[in-house]
Amino acid sequence: MKYDMQIIVRSLGKNFGAQKVFKNLNFELSDGQSLAITGPNGSGKTTLVRILCTLIRPSEGAVQYYDNGSVIKLEDVYSYIGLVGPYLELYEELTALENLRFFARMRGIKDAFNRSMNLLQRLGLDGRGDDPVKNYSSGMRQRLKYVFALLHEPHVLILDEPTSNLDVQGVNTVYGIMTEQKKDKILILATNDQADVKYGDQQIAVGP
Amino acid sequence: MTKIWQFALFLWLTVVIILAFLWAPLAEGLGEYTRIIYFHVPAAWLTVLSFLLGAIYSIIYIKKREIKFDLYAESASQIGLVFCLLATVTGSIWAKVSWGSFWNWDPRETSIFILLLIYAAYFALRSAIEQEERKAALAAVYSLFAFVSVPFFVFIVPRIYSSLHPDPIVNPEGRINMDSKMLTTFISSLFGFTLFFIWIFKRKIDLIGLKLNLKKMEL
Amino acid sequence: MQLVLKAWFIFQKDLKQEFKTRYSINAILLFAIVTLVTVSFSIGTFAASAEIKSSLLWIILFFAAMSGLAHIFVREEEKHTADTLKLVAQPMSIFLGKFLFNFILLIVLEIITLPLFFAVMNFSVEGVTVLLSVLLIGSIGLSAGATMIAAIIAKASAKGALFTVLSFPILLPVLIAGISGTKIAVYESTFKAAGAELQMLFAYAVVVITAALLLFDFVWKE
Question: Which of A56, C41, C92, C177 has an alpha carbon within 20 to 30 A of C119's alpha carbon?
Fold first, then answer.
């Protein structure tokens, strides 16, 4: 699949009722670029992430996704995105492989089984594919979220708190993933961790 | 609304009440209870009008996403709820007098009761959601979803009941031949109460406008 | 038809979860059986009329539905998988998939409850096919409406009571026509006899599904 993507954010603002979360955010991202969103806890990083994923609507301004110069309809954006975040969970009662099989079918991924096994191995979860997710530790769940996010080779990878719950090995794997993504695709991360922030060529601070 | 119009409206309604109690003749069999018709029917009519208005503003909110439209829909529903209660109670009194019992589950009675349930459900939903935008969106959807099910009560259920119950349940409003004095009073009441509704609704809209302006200044 | 295919996958996923936890089916089955037993016990040897038995059947089905049909959305919200689902599917597929699940759930409930009801309540009908048609078409409308309301209340607090409060006025036409159709089936075996009821149930199903498909987007998306 040949993509040439761009994300353009103009005058983006979000209020929840009377509470203003942020306003007038502007940035642009193209292939091979990455963005780090920083800010104290509760500052609206997650809100911004969710707007970028089209999970919620902005109050003002707009996010536009482009592929080869033409606008991608907002309701179709989800198919280009892979998201990892603390508020995103997988189906506990199902096994990891059952979860992945479902997502693969939904995404129309060919050769899903092999891809799943490879990713599980890469994230250090091989052999655990047939365990129900509810038996996973929080570290394992975080890794599994990466498998879910990477399954369809997303052109835009968005990571909210990329290294939370991970041990040293996990953190290194994630750094590898981030490096790979920002080479020729788009990477967005939201974090407070100083070590993670440098994976964003651009930085944007959210908060009062 | 200038003071003059306001005064005129109140004068009109006062005259209507006087006409209803002193001038209009009584129908046979009902005696003094005839007078209910001048208040019950307008109340029922306003309930329906409010319901319609609520649905319209719900659609507008969904299209435009401006919170004021949701608040208009809420206002219309508040007024609707009050008149629905009035209509149900007055209708029940009338039923007792005409047919002997307070509640018969005749199609009209059932319809007004369903509307009451829908209004109550609407407000229950609103109070169960904290976040303003979410509350507005979900309330609007419920409002519209309820709206499409109402025609089933008003038009279709009576067909089923007529096929089941052969004995004619006389619909009070079926009496078209009204004495001219009764008709005058009736139409005047209907007209007056509709204006009353418009007046209350406009006051509520003005209030909403003020509240929203205040919020904007605080931001 | 990508949309429908995805809906089918979602249905299968929900089915798999249900097999593993048996949460919804247990809830509604238990409710139905407890209610049936209570009703039968309290009526005892008293011969209830066909009218009353018809009403009781639908009361049991309706309230059993109320105790289990919201789970399909409430669970997604409570377990934080709603966003995950949003990232892999459009709203339409999600609604269709979950509507199908609730419909099947309701049918399974009826398959189990109906024979029990016939036996325990000494209920017999002339027009079995009429009764089954009324139940089938009624279930389509009932599950469609309930699925939509479930999506609405999943995002509110106090979900349990709210689900019934919101559903009742909307689903009432199904109850009315369903009970009426059931009563007719007791005495008649032709479809014509229950024609008005069947037509209304069908019209209702069409209207509710259409309205749900149009409005679901606004419930599901923030």
Answer: C177
